[in-house]
Amino acid sequence: MARLGEYDISNPFEATVVETARITPPDSKEDIRHIVLDISGSGFHFVEGQSVGVLVPPPFAAGQKQHFRLYSVASSRQGDDGKDKTIALCVKRCSYIDDFSGEEYKGIASNYLCDLTPGAKVTMTGPYGVAFVVPADDTCNMLLIALGTGIAPFRAFVKHIYETRGGWKGKVRLFYGGKSGLDLAYMNDEKNDFAQYYDEETFKAFQAVSPRPHMDDPIEWEKALEQHAEEVWELLKDPKTYVFIGGLEKIMEPLSKAFVKMAGSEPQWEQKKNELVGANRWFELLY
């Protein structure tokens, strides 16, 4: 993935906020928002798996000419309106603690977007890349694994294959992780978009959460995958299976441990993963 400074932002366009809604419940510590923007008249078009850039307006930090951040698209190419006039983003309000001073600082782009109200204008750029691509053959299987806002491209995937394309013959298995069930965007009591696909014969979704979310225990990825290890391993052995992983980089360590157990040893897992990578059936979008 290119560095932020390497992205072409020379052709910005203006979008208008249509909707902004917190999609984590009030008792969740995570403020994750679903933001829908009107892009009609901009000439902007995108497909699932792409990202867009957001240019935050000044003031900037000393010596900074602009503040640019990337966000994965959370809607199918037809937009949330189904008319190719909107684009949706999944944004988590972020902050970080300075290691030296102990002071908390708000994430500039995320707080800017989360504070917007309907009617606000947003300067955007892109689209960029196609990190994830829906297979052309609808008999292929897809193993989707996401942490936090890494779910955004998979929301777009699922909407595209079951609504725009009208169905999917291969297996689609989604594993989604968060500190608790409350934090699973699009899969909680506040907003459960994935529920409308549970009746689809080929789609299943599973949660991976911490056993004690208030104690900072790690998310139980190994347990979640082990409960379905037989099916997951059969999928990984199937030459028609594609694997997509999105979210924070820390997701990879527990996933690797789970896959090593399925394979029987670390060398066997490395061999299988190398096969998937070599066949262009293993994709990661990590940050």
Number of strands: 13
Largest sheet report: 6 strands, antiparallel
At CATH level 3, the topology of the largest domain is Rossmann fold
- How much strand? 25-35%
Low-confidence stretches: none
Query: Could you give the order of strands across the largest sheet?
Result: 4-3-8-1-2-5
| Shape estimate | globular
**How large is the radius of gyration?**
19 Å
Give the helix/strand class.
alpha/beta
Output the number of helix runs: 6
The top-level CATH class of the largest domain is Alpha Beta
Average of the residue pLDDT scores: 90
Query: How far is the N terminus from the C terminus?
Result: 10 Å
CATH architecture of the largest domain: 3-Layer(aba) Sandwich
Helical amount: 10-25%
Total domain count: 2
CATH-assigned homologous superfamily of the largest domain: Nucleotide-binding domain of ferredoxin-NADP reductase (FNR) module
Following the backbone from N to C, one meets helices and strands in this order, namely EEEEEEEHEEHEEHHEHHE
List keywords for this structure.
alpha/beta; 287 residues; Elongation Factor Tu (Ef-tu), domain 3; Rossmann fold; five-stranded parallel sheet; six-stranded antiparallel sheet; single chain; 2 domains; 6 helices
Give me a quick take on this structure.
The chain is of the alpha/beta class and 287 residues long. It has helices at residues 108-114, 152-164, 221-226, 229-237, 252-263, 266-278, and strands at 13-22, 32-38, 51-56, 67-72, 86-92, 95-97, 104-106, 121-128, 141-147, 172-178, 203-209, 241-247, 282-286.
